[in-house]
Write a structure and sequence with these properties.
The structure holds 2 protein chains of 2 kinds. By secondary structure, chain A is mainly beta. Helix content of chain A is 0%, strand content 53%. Chain B contains no helices and 11 strands. Classes of the chains: A mainly beta, B mainly beta. Chain A binds chain B through residues 4, 8, 32, 41-46, 87, 89, 91, 93, 95-104, and chain B through 31, 33, 40-45, 48, 50, 55-56, 91, 95, 97-99, 102, 104-107, 109.
Chain lengths: 111, 113
């Protein structure tokens, strides 16, 4: 079983749609959680950290459920520029800061 | 440019040849990481350094792979006797101690023919 699992997609949605990505992680000792965005043939970039209380950044909302070991990302009013791969990432903290990535979920927003 | 710099950007090599990649981290970051990413997958951890000490190596890092960070600044990743399965994007990242400020370089794309 992979340490971090995501639905690979692709998700094809029209502009303005709301789209949700889900992620599960296997190690209950995971301490920190993130969503990264990766454009085609580019490096991953941090989109947002994920906190147990949930957090929002504009059109993006992230949620963490530690009991279920589940992380989500909601994108509202999607834009063409949101087209990318979204990577769910966990960090063990006590393992020196290395990040463990899911395989990514590809999003394509169409006009 | 104060970001993470990787060279070369692209490398095409024949099977069996040795290749070496370089990563220059953000200068004040004492942690440096190497990841490998293949098509359709997320980045996979290879190894990381805290200053010049290599603190962890993944099982993915076979004996043909070696990484160094001799002075705690730049790092090199060498692959000996390359195989077609080594074709991937090799990403370097750096961070200060702790989990924040993790920055990736643009990567080196290796193609083994």
């Amino acid at each position: 079983r992979k340490e971090v699992e995501q639905d690979p997609g692709p998700f094809n949605v029209p502009e303005g749609a709301t789209v949700a990505f889900n992620c599960t992680y296997s190690n209950s000792a995971s301490q920190s959680f993130f969503w990264y965005r990766q454009d085609c043939r580019k490096e991953p970039k941090l989109l947002m950290s994920v906190y147990s209380s949930g957090n929002e950044d504009g059109r993006f909302t992230a949620q963490l459920n530690r009991a279920s070991q589940y992380i989500s990302l909601l994108i509202r009013d999607s834009k063409l520029s949101d087209s990318a791969t979204y990577l769910c990432v966990v960090n063990m903290n006590n393992q020196g800061g290395k990040l463990i990535f899911g395989q990514g979920t590809e999003l394509s927003v169409k006009p | 440019d104060t970001g993470v710099s990787q060279n070369p950007r692209h490398k095409i090599t024949k099977r069996g040849q040795n290749v070496t990649f370089r990563c220059d981290p953000i200068s004040e970051h004492n942690r440096l990481y190497w990841y490998r990413q293949t098509l359709g997958q997320g980045p996979e951890f290879l190894t990381y350094f805290q200053n010049e000490a290599q603190l962890e190596k993944s099982r993915l890092l076979s004996d043909r792979f070696s990484a160094e960070r001799p002075k705690g600044s730049f790092s090199t990743l060498e692959i000996q006797r390359t195989e077609q399965g080594d074709s991937a994007m090799y990403l370097c990242a750096s961070s200060p101690t702790g989990n924040y400020g993790y920055t990736f370089g643009s990567g080196t794309r290796l193609t083994v023919v």
